[in-house]
Amino acid sequence: MIHILTRINRLRTIRFILIILCGLLIVGGEAYAQQSSKNAKKKYSKRKKVKKKAPAPALPVFTLSGKIMMVESYCGGAAPSRELLNEIKRPKPCLEKYFFIKKGDANSAKNPVIDVIKVDSTGSFSIKLKQGVYCIIQDFQTKPLQLENYKSSTLYQYQGDDCMRKFWADCYQTVDLKSNVSDLNITVYKKCFGDGNPCMQYTGPMPP
Q1: Residue 128 and residue 106 share a domain
Q2: Which of 1, 107, 138, 176 is surrounded by the fewest CB atoms within 10 Å?
């Protein structure tokens, strides 16, 4: 009889321990679930707080307009009359040259041409550009600089690589466009020999 009672008490004790363990597991599971839920909410909240960078505001567009005129030179021959000299020196629309526009305050092979200036029969032009600094260049400056092409001439004396690099990099005109510009006037002086390149001095025969 005593043996049976002892066995019953042991079973009750084991049962009590199992109930306590089950309770602890249930409570622990709920606590783990709650903590996981909090962590997930924190991660979501952090992600939600990350703001995307706002796009840069669009730059305003302005009008750049003006005139490009050319003044010729008298290149020899019979003594000209005063009327002829005055006519030669009179500025005329620069119809034989195009000018090109790049961004920046110097010509660079890294910057592409973004627009071309073409004048009408009166020498006038008008283009639209975003606010910024622009470099107006000539046609030869749109191509990579090939120094060897200038060293082989028999009619011109080459003035050196440094001179040519500077001439290629310098803007014909620089424009800091902050508002509409209507009076950009450029005068091109046409030389008798060459294209006005200071790095190529003419040494060939002179006209009679």
Answers
A1: yes
A2: 1
Domain count, the chain: 2
Helix (H, G, I), strand (E, B) or coil at 106: coil
The Cα–Cα gap between 46 and 56 comes to 25
The answer to whether residues 188 and 68 touch, using CB atoms and an 8 Å cutoff, is: yes
Beta-sheet strand order (sheet of 99-103): 115-117, 99-103, 132-137, 173-177
Say if CB 113 and CB 143 are below 8 A apart.
Answer: no
pLDDT at 172: 95
* Tokens 């909240």, located at residue: 45
In contact, 110 and 149? CB cutoff 8 Å: no
Q: Let me know whether 17 and 102 are in one domain.
A: no
Q: What is the pTM of this model?
A: 0.70
Q: What is the mean pLDDT of residues 149-167?
A: 93
